[in-house]
């Protein structure tokens, strides 16, 4: 009996500590949201509720903003922030627009838009299964998009072969397939809209090779890549993330290629690591960077051959001109990251032999430029 009586107390104590940590993080998020979107609001009283049916609520008289414990504990933090913004939008209607009875009408939707809130969270009820579009690796919402992505996935899988010639041929065919379907993908981007996908690294620091992969993804696909971070409510810490934004098919393939490159770096290192003496950690990092440098050189050559003299001359009535695609994507990114900052990287010491060998190995990884009209290359945040 004593043991059974203590268990709820222990759980209550654990929840209390978690709730305190979550409230502190929500307070920081509130300040950041106000800064990012240019609002000067009086912070509300934040509360964690035990409701299983109401994700969040805003009580204007008491100025209490509540979020459900079950929302925070069972879903990604980015979904919690969507609900959080929904309730902040109610606060804006009350205290900025002076319309406490705005409900979920046009004025409320205006506040949601100013906060960069996804459309699926601008209603009175939100389906958590649809709140964050969880794109499976290599999937797409359209039939043609699914077929293109599935073919590329199969070719990239062959690119993992230990047979160097077979792997290079598979990657080359994947690039040719993407180039051939370029205009189809442009049309799909116009029809299906843009998506935002988050890759969590599970690390509190972003390794140098992941930053380089992010740059390569921007060069290779018509996507924006942002290096950011996301809070983990169970661990009470933040992990670095890679944010992919663009047309759904492009984001799906870029995500698959991210994991493909991660896996190939490790596999090639395990094969060649015994050839390098000295500091093993330095050699491993240098080998990773060298592989990506070699791959980048091959990529630049492929881009020069795949992109014609005038992209705009190839557009038809079913596609958007390059400038319009870029503007559309830029507006999509700005709505979610309104105050982006570019930060330059620092030069790092490398293991000479490992780096030089890896550059040569990296040139054998052939992935031709899949889509033209990508946005400028660079690491953000």
TrEMBL record:
Residues 42-115 form the SprT-like domain. It comes from the Bacteria. InterPro entries: DUF2786, DUF7168, SprT-like_domain. This is DUF2786 domain-containing protein. It comes from Desulfobulbus oligotrophicus. Transmembrane segments: none annotated. Pfam families: DUF2786 (PF10979), DUF7168 (PF23771), SprT-like (PF10263). One of its GO terms (biological process) is response to stress.
């Amino acid at each position: 009996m004593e043991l059974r009586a203590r268990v709820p107390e222990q759980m209550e104590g654990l929840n209390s500590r978690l709730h305190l940590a979550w409230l502190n993080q929500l307070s920081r998020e509130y300040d950041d949201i106000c800064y990012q979107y240019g609002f000067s609001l009086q912070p509300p009283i934040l509360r964690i509720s035990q409701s299983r049916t109401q994700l969040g609520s805003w009580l204007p008289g008491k100025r209490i903003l509540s979020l459900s414990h079950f929302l925070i504990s069972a879903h990604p933090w980015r979904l919690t922030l969507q609900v959080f913004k929904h309730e902040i939008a109610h606060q804006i209607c009350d205290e900025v627009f002076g319309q406490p009875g705005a409900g979920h009408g046009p004025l409320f939707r205006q506040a949601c838009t100013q906060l960069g809130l996804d459309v699926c969270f601008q209603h009175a009820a939100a389906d958590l299964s649809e709140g964050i579009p969880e794109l499976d690796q290599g999937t797409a919402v359209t039939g043609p998009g699914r077929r293109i992505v599935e073919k590329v996935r199969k070719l990239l899988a062959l690119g993992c072969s230990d047979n160097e010639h077979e792997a290079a041929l598979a990657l080359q065919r994947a690039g040719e397939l993407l180039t051939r379907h370029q205009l189809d993908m442009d049309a799909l981007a116009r029809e299906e809209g843009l998506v935002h996908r988050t890759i969590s690294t599970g690390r509190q620091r972003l390794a140098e090779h992941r930053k380089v992969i992010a740059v390569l993804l921007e060069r290779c696909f018509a996507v924006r890549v942002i290096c950011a971070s996301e809070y983990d409510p169970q661990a009470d810490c933040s992990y670095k993330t890679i944010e992919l934004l663009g047309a759904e098919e492009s984001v799906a393939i870029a995500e698959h290629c991210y994991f493909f490159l991660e896996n190939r770096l490790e596999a090639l290192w395990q094969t060649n690591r015994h050839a390098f003496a000295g500091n093993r950690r330095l050699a491993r990092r240098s080998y990773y960077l060298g592989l990506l440098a070699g791959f980048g050189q091959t990529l630049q050559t492929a881009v020069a051959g795949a992109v014609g003299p005038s992209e705009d001359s190839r557009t038809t009535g079913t596609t958007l001109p390059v400038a319009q695609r870029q503007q559309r994507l830029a507006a999509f990114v700005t709505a979610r990251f309104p105050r982006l900052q570019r930060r330059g990287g620092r030069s790092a010491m490398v293991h000479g032999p490992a780096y030089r060998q890896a550059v040569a190995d990296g040139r054998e990884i052939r992935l031709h430029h899949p889509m033209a009209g990508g946005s400028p290359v660079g690491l953000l945040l």
